[in-house]
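Hi Y.,

Following your request, here is the sequence exactly as I used it, all 274 residues.
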Amino acid sequence: MTTTKKLLLGLIAVGMAAATPTRAALVTTQGDLLLSFYTVNGASVGPIAYTINLGQGVDFFDGSTASGIIVNINTDLVAAFGASWWDNTELKMALVGGFSSTANPTAPDAARTIYAGAKLATYNPGTSTPAKAASTLNHNTWATNVSSFSDSQNGKAANGAVASNSAIMVTATDRSDVTNFVPPVASGTFFGIGTDPTTGFAAGNIGSSQEAALDLWKADKATWSAPQWGGTFSIDSPGNVSYSAVPEPSTVTMLGLAAILGSGLLRRRSRKQS
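Below is the corresponding structure, written out as tokens. Let me know if you'd prefer a different format.
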């Protein structure tokens, strides 16, 4: 290869590199669902936290998001927490999102709408205790802190994360990662209140090959005492984050009719046999 050709190829390579945009690490807006991972050892948090944006919370309530795998984050979790992250008993997973008092979200969401996870000890979607505030004032505090967390994540550098809209953060130097809003750093509270939107990991899975799961609940200032279930997020050992949507009312009705018909057939058979 001639010197001229080498020079031309080199210039082309440089030009292509310059034209390739740097991936936006973590872009957030209020109302996004943020799934975060971090470790806790006694009274200390671990050195690394990881957060990925799953998209607007309303999309998981209006039927626009179907059940299934949303994203795979195994590469990022291995980089942040080691090869067997799913068996790490110190690892926590948190799910939150929401709007501040001054936000003007699109209906049906309102200002101070909160999205939060609630732990499932076994994989049985919709059976968790709803994540909710203890009072209107408590809900306002929660909304303020969750929206502040969401705002603070916007523009975080990827720091080695490869999944879209995600970032790995060093907890000792990045003072707005998730560990600043949860115990033990946050003085024993979760985003300023007592409701825990996290779950943990342990040896073995919790059923259906899932390693951890969180029900998704939503409430605004007017409905703080009666949260609405929006489905379930879970993760398996290969790192697939999945969403199980709330069944459509028609599906629930059909299942109910099937159960009634089934019980009727069983009664008829038992009568014939007797």
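Helices lie at 3-19, 74-81, 136-153, 249-273.

Thanks again,
Q.
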